[in-house]
Each structure stands twice: as C-alpha cells, then as structure tokens.
Amino acid sequence: MDNKIHPKDQFQAHDRSIPFKDADAIDTEVLECFAYEYADSPTGDIEIVTDTQEFTSVCPFSGLPDFANVTITYTPDRNCIELRSLKYYLMSYRDVGIWYEHLVNRMLEDLIKVVEPKHMLVEVACNARGGLVSTVRAEFVKED
User: Fold this and answer.
1) What CATH number matches the domain at 21-141, 3.90.1150.10, 3.40.920.10, 3.30.1130.10, 3.30.830.10?
2) Which pLDDT belongs to residue 41?
3) Catalytic residue flag (residue 95)
C-alpha cells in the first residue's frame, strides 16, 4: 500500500485569511487604577508582577490566532493596576491583527499612560511557530 501523498500535493492555502480587527479595537478605556497607599512610605518601592498564559491576538497576515505569555512587571508610584480591568484590556487584543514587536510597545505605552509607574517592563513570550520561539520586551523608566 504505497499511495502516500506528499502534504504539498495534498493541501492548498486557497489565498485565505480569517477576518480580524485593527489596533483601534484595543480597549484602553477599560483600564482602571487604585491609589497606592504606601507611595510615600520608606518601604513603598515594591515590585508587582502580573502574568497570564491566556493572551491571544491574531497574525496580521493570516488572521490565525497567536498565543503568548504576557508578564507585566512594575514599580508603582501613586497608582496600581486594577486586575479585572487589566484582564478586560488584554482580552480586547483577542481579534486584533498585530505583530508582537508592535504589540509589546503598544501595551507598554497604554499602561504607562494610565498607571504612571516608576518603572515598567512588558514581556511577551510567544508560543512556538514553525519551531521558533520569540520573546519581546519593552521597558520604561521614569525620569527623576
């Protein structure tokens, strides 16, 4: 039984792409903060690390889903991110076609506008595609 068909001869892409939204669909209005009560305390310089393995956006070429682990590390100044609002913000990327290299910068810019931290690092660790794994980082340090 030697009737094996090579996958290149068996399947076609048919020039298909799944519809997706552009970056205007990212919902920054949902982001909320609460006052950090220890901002003026000598012990107030804490580091907050928030991590999710449930992040998805889509490839801006094919519309196929991209999955990643997102880690947000920051030192608050006067505000802390309210986590429910952060979850809704991250979920708004679900149908957005965006390169990870752009996503990490967009996310950092959105978050520092709302939180105004002393320091923030956003890391997007992409799931493997074609055997390649990429991690993209963007960092902000408040000037004194």
Assistant:
1) 3.30.1130.10
2) 94
3) no
Tens digit of pLDDT for each residue in 78-130? Answer: 999 999 999 999 999 999 999 999 999 999 999 999 999 999 999 999 998 77
Is 80 catalytic? The answer is: no
At residue 111, what is the residue type? L
Q: Which of 59, 77, 95, 110 is catalytic?
A: 59
List the catalytic residue out of 9, 24, 33, 66: 66
The pLDDT score that the predictor gives to residue 129 is 78
pTM: 0.87
